[in-house]
Amino acid sequence: MIKEWENELLHRLRKASFEQQLIEELKAEAGNLGFDHCNYGVRLPLQLSKPKIIMFNTYPMTWQKRYQSRNYQRIDPTIQHGVRSQTPLIWTDEVFRNTREFWEEARGYGLRYGWSQSTVGPQSLRGMLTLSRRHGSLTASEMNAHGYQLVWLTQVVHQSMSKLLSARLLPEAHVDLSLREKDVLRWTAEGKSSLEIADLLNITERTVNFHIANILKKMNCANRTAAAVRATLLGLLD
């Protein structure tokens, strides 16, 4: 039965051609698992000083606007947990002990019991799936019965959403670097100069600089250090 569920869900989610369609499929599956709402957030790997988080959810519109206007991403403990850990998180009073006002306000909109889990996929995109409901705390027996499905759902949703988002929001992730360009970038990331890289790769310094010029153009970067950092964050050197 589990295998049939996996295949059927995988088929439906992979058919989604845009983000909202995927969220509608996710909402239906959340309902099957006993939840009222779903939320998927993705943290883009670039913009190191101020990472961008994009969210798609089925929460009440008034709460969505309130959350955005008050910049609750900044204090939301579920997001803070998701950035640090891929361990599933069940909402409790203890989780929200330092954000009591935020917690009470969310509960007022029917977001009283929830489960969250983050994961990291291609291009270093970190995503987090949250399912929540108004009534009924999550019991140990429920987690034993559906824990595997929740974890598997997180992985499939993240893969499907990453595919939809990366081409639009991370065009650099699809840069076609040659094997030699990747070699040059790897050594650049290690702090090597053009002359040192030339010696390591048994090519001329002029050839190294030629590759670096091509890399900067392809990745739209101002200098070699920025290109090395960006390529590393996007997983282009793996």
UniProtKB/TrEMBL annotation:
Biological processes per GO annotation: regulation of DNA-templated transcription
Show where the HTH luxR-type domain sits: 170-235
What Pfam families is this protein classified in? Answer: Autoind_bind, GerE
Q: Tell me if Transcription regulation is a UniProt keyword of this record.
A: yes
On the tree of life, the source organism's domain of life is Bacteria
Name by which UniProt lists this protein? LuxR family transcriptional regulator
User: Taxonomic classification, please?
Assistant: Bacteria, Pseudomonadati, Pseudomonadota, Betaproteobacteria, Rhodocyclales
Which PANTHER family has this protein been placed in? DNA-BINDING TRANSCRIPTIONAL ACTIVATOR DEVR_DOSR
Query: For this protein, what is any one GO molecular function term?
Result: DNA binding
Q: Does the keyword Oxidoreductase apply?
A: no
Please give the Gene3D superfamilies that the UniProt record associates with this protein: Transcription factor LuxR-like, autoinducer-binding domain, Winged helix-like DNA-binding domain superfamily/Winged helix DNA-binding domain
The record's InterPro entries line, in alphabetical order, gives: Sig_transdc_resp-reg_C-effctor, TF_LuxR_autoind-bd_dom, TF_LuxR_autoind-bd_dom_sf, Tscrpt_reg_LuxR_C, WH-like_DNA-bd_sf
Any idea which UniProt keywords this protein has? DNA-binding, Transcription, Transcription regulation
